[in-house]
Each structure stands twice: as structure tokens, then as C-alpha cells.
Amino acid sequence: MSLLEIHEPGETPLPHAGEASLAVGIDLGTTNSVVAIARDGVPAALHDDTGKALVPSVVAYPDAGGVLVGEEARLLMAREPRNAVASIKRLMGRGAADLHTVAGVLPYEIEPGSGQTDMVKLRIGGKARSPVEISAEILKALRGRAEAALDKPVERAVITVPAYFDDAARTATRDAARVAGLEVLRLVNEPTAAALAYGLDKGSEGLYAVYDLGGGTFDFSLLRLEKGVFQVLATGGDTALGGDDFDRAIAERMLAERRKDGVADQVDEAAVKTALALARQMKEQLSERDQTSGRLELAGTPSFHSLGRAEFEAMITKYISRTLDIATNVLADAGMSASDVQGVVLVGGSTRLPLVRAEVAGMIGKPALTDIDPDEVVALGAALQAEALTGGGDTLLLDITPLSLGLETMGGIVEKVVPRNTPIPVQLAQEFTTYQDGQTAMAIHVVQGEREMVADCRSLARFELSGIPPMTAGAARIRVSFAVDADGLLAVSAEERTTGVAQRIEVKPSYGLSHDDMADMLYDSLEHAEADVTQRLLVEARVEARRNLLALDAALAKDGGLLAADECAALDAGRAHLEAAIAGEDRDAINAAAEALESLSKPFAERRMDRGIREALAGLSVGELESRVGE
Amino acid sequence: MDHFARLGLPAALDLEPAALDRAYFTAQRQWHPDRFVGRPPDERAKASTEAAGLNDAYRTLKDPLSRAVYLAGLNGVELPGDGKTIDDADLLMEAMEAREALHEAATPEAVDALATQVRQDMQRSLEGLGTLFLRHDKAAIRKALLRLRYLDKFAEEARARRTNLQRVKA
After folding, report:
1. How big is the CA angle at A569 (ends A566 and A574), to the nearest 5 degrees?
2. Which of A389, A390, A425 is closest, CB to CB, to B55?
């Protein structure tokens, strides 16, 4: 609206309290997701009607139509396993080669042809769907929960990701938020968010470790807390290690026991899902008691399985050892030893396992901090950061890039440009040269990972720098620049520097998600949640209209003298009309009334603009005027 | 602007880690992109560039060896790029012998002993650098830095070897 545009450059008016949409913190987890909000530095998870904060990260597309998320989707999974999907986070930014099986079968139906060089797609509810759009459904549900709980539109969020998430997975998360209609204020690493929740709560100082073992991912981070500064020193992890692995081990064991008893199972996707669900229950029970049992029924044939805690712990020891190895390496990366650590924060549902608690405490030599619910702590930290980013808190969060970024050079070797644990944002460049006389183009292959060979790292993007003037081999100077922003997202550019004719290419690596895919997804999400969308458009129209009314009021208060009495009356009438529309339920009526008011106020806006320019120019010399224009 | 100036610190070999942290935190409080959420794009871009510059400076100056290499560069001592062949025959011989010793170390404890030796060696060499800088002895600075860089790499290799040995044991 034109009235809004009148303010000095750089002087964006502050959003009016109560008018600005709220910013929430979201922990988009493998197994469960949580949305939280912080007010005046006090975070709280948002609950549903039954008082639960955790939303199971399960999405279902029932035969009956529509989309279900959370507990309802999980219940549907038992009845219509082909229409529901869990642990979708594990597939964010992944290809088919990254997936784990149970008894050789995936608990997903992969869309044929996908996942070879792009992000894998699932066939679910009779349709190919990408992990991005499935995750977007979870985000939409969380957003809906927040809007219901707060009775205000929610358009902005801090979303957490595992520190060890690579660029493809981060980009996929950001895309999912976009599909869900959320502006991501910042992607914050989960361990950092957890530390934020603890640090602000306790006012602690010193070196802290965060051991985060969730459903699908493991992170270990070292942070230094000092007077409101959260500095991440080093981080490490495994994006495919978590409680899901424990479930898989139990499920495999039950299927093997059935085979031994002569049951000839046709192990398909549905059977795997059923076995995994039971395995999960048994695993959770083993945190409370020493022995558990379960009844597994596949294709009408039941079987009974018992499992002791000691036995279970033996099954998962190799996974826990791996987490401790990673932790040891992170300590070494930071040049620290376990005795330097003042406390270790446990995050993620899998840290409820007594074995995990004992091993971590043993390694650090101190009992772990568990006073904040490990399932909620990440979302609480994210909410604090969302408040700090929108309300301007005094905490400063200095994060790092978890994985080295580099380029392929001759012979498939990786040349690292940004080493892991580099503080972000960062811009680093490396120079390369041509290896053939007269070479006019250079292939640039961007990879992420710690290994020396390109084949062992994750490929992020390929592009070609062309138009290099022909020179003798080794004469050209190709400068490749890597920029990692505060969200941990990468942009790469390259230029040839001897000739001064710099050719520049910007590449935003986005693993297998083209702009067309994105557009399709946005469209699909509209198609599938029409009622949802109508509601949100209504809310948005109201917010926008109220914003305009406030701007008009402010303008009238300041420059009302520019208006004649009849103009004033006309504006008042238009104003009342819009207020009435806002009170109603018709979005089109709101928009129409807003437009009418806009055209009514246009002459007023123009007069204000003229006066503003006259005032700005008054008393300025030509020289001063030119220098201002040049600013 | 050089890294020292960017952080408002004297261009010196000796730098109190706490002073570096303080200067870095103060500057980041001003420029970190988190302080510019909701600001116009040009301001955000400037903040991002400034913050990246600060991070580069901090990262370079924090590690004593990389700080020394950087300061040497400011003083006109150019080192060959990382991973280039060593042109110092004595150092080459030393490196080969050390690598052999590392290869023969069969227990984590044996590797630790070598790593400790290297760390002490690095510490001494770093302390000795100050005199060389005072004398502006470019050739000696270059020689010492190349050796330090090699020792640093050796320490890294020792760490990898130790991890491998432990894994085999487990």
C-alpha cells in the first residue's frame, strides 16, 4: 500500500506489537516434531487439546482423501500402511543409495526411477511424493497448531536441523518450509538450540558438550558459553545413526525368529512397517524395565517375542560405540579433552536408554544434564532464537560448518576450500588453473565430506565455467569462491581473473529439486489443503488490512492537515467499511474494501510524498543534492 | 584491511587467546547476520560480508601456526601452497624417518608418545619464531614455518593412526 512506502531509507518502521505475525521455533524431528514459542525469554512448547507437545512425524494420505499428520497418521499406518510414512527426515536430500532396509526390504515404496541422481521420491497413497512435500505437511500441521494455540497467524520460524546435515538436506528443509508457507528466519543446528535452552536457563559458562541421539541422526557438538555468546567449537555426527537403527535391529531379530520357527513370511513394505512399530514399543519399554515381550502378527500368523535389556544392549553396542568414537574425534578437533567439559547435555529420545546415559557419563566423567525434557529441549532453544531474531535479544550464536566443502581436481581428488568447523558465515576462495593449451572451459564439481576422493564425498553441484580466453596451460587463473551463509547454505561462484573479463556463475546446490518440482509442490499443496488455504488466506488478508489501517492512522495523525474536510469524511467511511469487512469471514470483501480505501487515500499519499520531497530538498545546494542522489 | 586490523589487534606473533576472543565477540555482536534479520537486503549483504571477514580473521589468527604463517606473509615471506613438495632436504629426511616411526608404532600408547614429542617440538619452534621475526630473517622464518607445517600434518596423521589402532583393538 502506498502509504506504507513513506519512510526514510533504512528506517523500516517497527512492526506494531500484536500486529506482526509471531515467530516460532520448530524441531522437525525424525520421530517426533515440536513447535514452541518464547515470550520475554521464556520458552514453552505448544500443546494440543490433549496436552501433548510431541507431534509424531508421520504423514498419511488416507484412501478417504485428505492428509493426516501426527498421532492420527500413526494410527492410520496400522490400517493402511501403504498410505502412511514415518521417519521422512532420513530421506531429506537423499538418493536411493542412502536408504536402509529391514530383511532386504525398505519400509518405503520408492517411486521407480527416482533417487538415482536426484532426491528419492516415495510412492505413497498412490502418488509419487518427495520428502520435501511430505515434510511440508508436518510443518503445516505444526504451524496450524501454533496458530490455534496463539490465535494469531504464524509466518516465520526458526527450524532446527542436525548439525551434521549436509547442504542438500538443509536446502530440502528450507524448501519444505516454503511449501508450508513459512519464512525460515534461520536454520539452527539442533545441538546449538539445545545448548541455548540450557544456557539461558542456567546462565552457565564454560565448555559444554551436547550429545544428541535422535530417531535418525546423531550429533556431538562442543560449545563454549560465555556472557551470552554461544560459540560452537566443533561438531561431528552421522546423519544415518539413531533410534531407528535400534528398531531395525529388533525387527530383524523378530523376523529371523519367525523364520527359525518355520513361518514363511512374505516380507513386504507393510510387514516391515508393522515389525518396526512393534520393535519401537519394545525398545521404549526396555528403558523402564529389564524384560519385555511383543506379539507380531503378519498375514494372519502371530508370533511371540521376548527381549531382555542386556540382550538388547548387546545388539546396539556397536551403534553406541560409534557415537563415542565420533565424540572423541570432535574433542580432538577442538583440541580439548573430556576433562575440559563442564557438562554434557542429552538431547533426543534415544538418550532415554540407560545404556546411552551410562556410556556418555562414563566418557565425560560427569553425569549428564537431563533436567529439560530431551524431546522438547531443541524446540525450546529454537523458540528462544526466534524471539531473539525478531525481538532483538542480546544472545549471540556463533555456529560452524560441520563438513568440509571442496572441489574435484585432477584424478578425482578433493581439494578442500572450506574445512569443517569453520565459523559461518564464511567466504573463502581458491585459485585453479587450466591444464591444456587453449582450454576455454573448466568443469567445476562441488563436493561435501571429509574423504580425499570425490567418489567418497557427497556431490552437491556441477557446473561449467566457459568463455575462458585461450591461453597456454597453467596461465589462466580461475578463482572459485565458496560462500556459506548463517544457515549453513552454500553458494559457489567462479571467475577467470587474468583477463579481467570476469565471468560469474552462481550455483545454489539443491539436490535433485528443480524449480519446476518446487512449483509443482506448491501447487499440489494448494490443491490438497484447500480448506486450509482458504483459512490462511483469510487470516493473511485480515493481517494485511489491519496493517494498512495502522499505516493510514499514522499518516493521518502526522499529515492530516493536508486533507480537506470532505476528503477526511470519505477516508473515514472507507476506513469503517474495511473494518466491517475485517470482522466478517469473506476474504474477497476484505481485499475489495482494502483496495477501495487504497484508491481513496492515493491523493493523500501523493500529497505527502510531494511534501516529503520538498522538505528533503529544502535548503540543499546542488552539490549536496547530487551527493544524496548518489547514495 | 588485514586480519589483525579488522579485529583491532596489534599485528604480533603473540596473541592472548582471551583478547582475540573478546575482540572477535565484540565485532560479531555488531555484524553477525542474526542482528540484521528483517533489515533491507543491502544491509544484510554487508553484514554477511563483514561477519565472513571476521570469521576468516578469527580462524586465521586463532591457531598459532596459521597466525605465524599469516604474519610471515604480511612480512613478505611466501610459503609454497599446502601439499606442495618440500624443497628442504633435511626436512625431507626428518619427515621420512618420522613417518617410518609412526608406521612402526603398533599401540595407541606408542603413537601417543610420538604425538607428545611432536607437540613439544612444535611448541619450542613456535616460541623460537619470535626471535626470527625480530631479526627479520626471512629465510629462517620460511624454513621454520615449513617445518612447523610438516609437524602439524604429522600430528594429524598420528591422530588418524591412533583412531585406526583403537578401532582394530575394539
Report:
1. 130
2. A425
Min mean pLDDT across A131-135, A421-425, A614-618, B62-66 is at A614-618
Which residues of chain A make contact with B55, given a CB cutoff of 8 A? Answer: 422-426
B48 to chain A, minimum CA–CA distance in Å? 7
Where do you find CATH 2.60.34.10 in chain A? 403-517
| A403-456 pLDDT, tens digit each | 889 998 877 788 889 988 899 999 999 888 887 888 888 888 888 887 777 777
CA-nearest residue to B45 within chain A is A485
DSSP A163: T
Q: Is B32 on the interface with A (CB under 8 A)?
A: yes
Cα angle at A403 between A401 and A405, to 5 degrees? Answer: 95
Cis omega (within 30 of 0) for bond into B64: no
Distance CA A78, CA A275 (A): 11
> CA of B135, closest CA in chain A: separation in Å?
32
Indicate if the pLDDT at residue A18 is higher than 60.
no
Q: Which of A27, A137, A219, A359 is catalytic?
A: A27
Task: Enumerate residues 6+ apart whose C-beta is below 8 A from A447.
Answer: A405, A406, A407, A408, A414, A454, A457, A458, A459, A460
**Sorting pLDDT into bands at 50, 70 and 90, what band is B169?**
low
Could you say which residues from 450 to 509 on chain A have a Cβ atom under 8 Å away from some Cβ of chain B? Answer: 483, 485-486
Asked if the C-beta of B33 comes within 8 angstroms of chain A's C-beta atoms, the answer is yes
Locate the domains of chain B by residue range: 3-62, 89-169
CA dist., res. A288 & res. B28, Å (int): 46
Residue A302 has pLDDT above 60, yes or no: yes
Contact residues, B window 73-132, toward A, CB-based 8 Å cutoff: none
Kindly report the nearest CA distance between residue A429 and chain B, in angstroms: 11
The count of residues in chain B is: 170
User: What average pLDDT does this structure show over A260-280?
Assistant: 86
Q: Which pLDDT band holds residue A247 (cuts at 50, 70, 90)?
A: very high
What is the spatial distance between Cα A454 and Cα A631, in angstroms, rounded to a whole number? 46
Q: Taking the mean position of all CA atoms in its chain, how far away is CA A265?
A: 39
C-alpha cell at B71: 604474519
ipTM for the assembly: 0.85
**Residues of A with Cβ-Cβ distance to B37 under 8 angstroms:** 185-186, 389-390
Q: Among 3.50.50.60, 3.40.50.12780, 3.30.420.40, 3.40.605.10, name the CATH number for the domain at A22-242+316-398.
A: 3.30.420.40
Give the C-alpha separation, A168 to A572, whole Å: 52
CA distance B168 to chain A (A): 13
Helix axes A309-333, B138-169, angle to 10 degrees: 180
Residue A459 gets which letter from DSSP?
A: E
CATH 1.20.120.790 fits B3-62, yes or no: no
Q: Which of A317, A323, A389 to mutate to probe the B interface, most B CBs <10 Å?
A: A389
Write down the pTM of the prediction: 0.75
Q: Specify the pLDDT at position A377.
A: 92
The average pLDDT across A222-230 equals 88
